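Case study.
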Amino acid sequence: MTYITKPIRVRYSDTDQMGYMHHSNYLRFFEIARLEWMASLEISYKQMEKNGIWLPVVSAEVYYKTPSYFDDELTIKVKLEERPMASLHFSYEIHNQHQKLVCTGLTKLAFLDAKLQRPVRCPKNLFEALKPYF
Amino acid sequence: MTYITKPIRVRYSDTDQMGYMHHSNYLRFFEIARLEWMASLEISYKQMEKNGIWLPVVSAEVYYKTPSYFDDELTIKVKLEERPMASLHFSYEIHNQHQKLVCTGLTKLAFLDAKLQRPVRCPKNLFEALKPYF
Amino acid sequence: MTYITKPIRVRYSDTDQMGYMHHSNYLRFFEIARLEWMASLEISYKQMEKNGIWLPVVSAEVYYKTPSYFDDELTIKVKLEERPMASLHFSYEIHNQHQKLVCTGLTKLAFLDAKLQRPVRCPKNLFEALKPYF
Amino acid sequence: MTYITKPIRVRYSDTDQMGYMHHSNYLRFFEIARLEWMASLEISYKQMEKNGIWLPVVSAEVYYKTPSYFDDELTIKVKLEERPMASLHFSYEIHNQHQKLVCTGLTKLAFLDAKLQRPVRCPKNLFEALKPYF
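After joint prediction, the assembly is written out as follows.
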């Protein structure tokens, strides 16, 4: 099971001098996708951080297939790759408005007790909300 | 009296599809300049924030004269425009490696007690360090 | 007469360590607003650039009133301040989801013949499309 | 054989609300490293682009080990992982001012004839300059 984002427009400031969206921005798009997904499950990442649980990125991979350009509309499919324990493992596929595959990717994020700076388990409400997806 | 930064190279990721450094990045360059200046006066902005004094930007102006390009080396002149009281008022001039004027600008920053979210006066050590410049 | 954008969410990557949206990003938001406005008038900025007319920013001012935070939803009002001749002069007001004023701003942009790198007049189709607004 | 960059300071605008350098910025730092290396070999990437050879990123991986913070000084080791043919395969290690490993990474970049948008071989001058490193 997969979550699909609303289309996200490539901004002028996202481009570089090749006219491509700069390759680093895809990591920001992955982040938008997973946060939009959590919001759609009524999980507030903002609240989770206020509760002292952080979710830093532990690893990230991007495989670029076709460039995107200013004003393109990108849609991101996100999937959970594993049952969430101490970390979340997402995979991504980005398509443009012509249904062309722009890139794929993977990220791992680890739950962190912000005060102790120590790994913790996935918060219960998030685990429950994600259950249909793993 | 003026502080002049070390040359700062325009990064590939700073460019946009016109091949220019994106105009929003000059505000980041102004920030680099004032922080480098403070560091040269042995004022750690990082420590100031840890001590609970923040310095958010209250207003900013940029007047763009000539574009800058990937790999350009920009030098920033910073000046204090006023004796620091509750705020710092800087002016900037950026030149490229050909001594051409790239842009000028102004920023005002206000001292803020981070906990109370209330304006405060310029910390004493910063005021003293800046004395030769106003 | 004024154009009002769809709400734009502050992204996690827009924040800085104060927890504010970094002040440089407002210039990117102003850009989104004016391009969304042009698109709503069926003016493709992308096409205009392909036709060899660029629209670089000549000056920009931002007056910050209240910070914005991750997940805030910002709405931008754009207005034309002057009849477009060789340049476009916009003013902006950004409000958050609590209808609080986040910042105001001004930008001037100049029409440029990209090949000759020389100023030109506002393209006729854009001038006509903007007529109701000045 | 390895190239090691000059220390690169984490900018205030690189941070996010966790106080970490945002994870997407490491891809920009990898880019700085490989371009600085090429410059040190007297290969101008800027000139290469003007000659019609682009070098877009085809894949990227980052393994985050320890966060970096505002004002940290990062040093990047770059290595060629393979003899350059139609692509360049780099690996990276970033250390902070305490000699702590911040992250490791990999990128593949492909040579592209910009006009034809077709893959090409590594330009001869770059191949020769890199010879001691593979």
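Observations recorded in class. The interface with chain D takes residues 12-13, 15-19, 22, 24, 70 of chain C (CB under 8 Å). The longest helix of chain C spans residues 25-40. We will return to this complex in the next lecture.
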